[in-house]
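[User] Once you have settled down, look closely at the record that follows, and write a paragraph about the fold.
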Amino acid sequence: DVVTEQQESWTVATQVQPDKEQWEALKFAWKAVKYVKSNGIIVTNEHQTLGVGPGQTNRVASVKIAIEAAQEKGLDNAVLASDAFFPFADNIDEIAKSGIKAIVQPGGSVRDQEVIEACDKYGITMVFTGV
């Protein structure tokens, strides 16, 4: 909460780069996810929140809740933000099923490489904020 956001220090961890629209949506999603109870997941586009998965005991449950809520509004140009790193690639498997193609998260898991490889497998871009 006291760390100054430095978007210039964000890194694209995957082979696929975000397009301009995805970058805008990822920036919005990252700002919004900090207001979600931990193990927080949020699905947005560049203008609005589409689904929220707050406070579950595991991140996959949060992902499923957020995506299910977002599907009611439509997932066109949707991105996903996580308030913490993805500890396993199973989260990416769930995200890929929805068709979401861009993720922002802090990174920092000992399994980051496994998660990156899952994103690459599905053609999903993933940005690490480092925060």
